[in-house]
Design goal:
Layout (H helix, E strand, L loop, with lengths): L2 H30 L3 H10 L7 E4 L3 E2 L6 E9 L6 E10 L12 E6 L5 E3 L3 E3 L2 E3 L7 E3 L4 E10 L7 E9 L1
Antiparallel strand pairs: 1-11, 2-11, 3-10, 4-8, 4-9, 4-11, 5-6, 5-10, 7-8
């Protein structure tokens, strides 16, 4: 038998062994695989990566008076299907500056049990913002989402505009 033929025969044997192993593992492998429904359910639990749109709510001037000011972000899902959304609060600096930094404000979010929890604001190009990925919620068809934020400006010279909005996914 030539070297070429022996290599081909060895490769054939290896392929048969590999296929036999897969056939034997088939039922066990099938038991560990997620079904289509389980895959879909897992996908629903994963946060959507990129918003497909935004619903902008009325803006208001930033009040640098050291007082706590509440802002409510409300979204009603009028569609027939469930919708993934994320409430967000933007605090925008004046175009000409000075630009706001996260240390200029204290931001809190009201929890479901009525307590306040601190929210770390991100910053980009003079705009402070709340994180979308941690705020994502599924709003059932016909239901309304309400998120209340509390903003305290600690820098008496801070200027800007508060813009509540809702990010839409899917």
């Amino acid at each position: 038998m030539s070297l070429k033929n022996s290599r081909l025969r060895l490769a054939s044997v290896a392929l048969v062994v590999a296929l036999s192993g897969l056939a034997m593992a088939g039922p066990a492998m099938a038991a560990t695989q997620q079904t289509g429904g389980a895959v879909a359910a897992a996908a629903q639990r994963q946060p959507a990566a990129v918003p497909t749109g935004f619903v902008d709510l009325p803006t208001s001037p930033l009040k640098a008076d050291g007082e706590r000011h509440e802002f409510t972000v409300t979204y009603r899902n009028d569609s027939a299907a469930d919708r993934t959304v994320a409430p967000q609060l933007l605090v925008q600096s004046p175009d000409a500056g000075p630009f706001l930094t996260p240390s200029d404000v204290e931001l809190e979010r009201r929890t479901a049990d009525g307590c306040w929890e601190p929210v770390q604001a991100g910053a980009q190009t003079g705009t402070l913002f709340t994180d979308l990925t941690t705020a994502q919620r599924t709003v059932r068809a016909g239901e309304t989402l309400t998120q209340v934020y509390r903003l305290t400006v600690v820098d008496p010279d801070a200027e800007g505009t508060v813009t509540p909005r809702v990010a839409l996914y899917g």
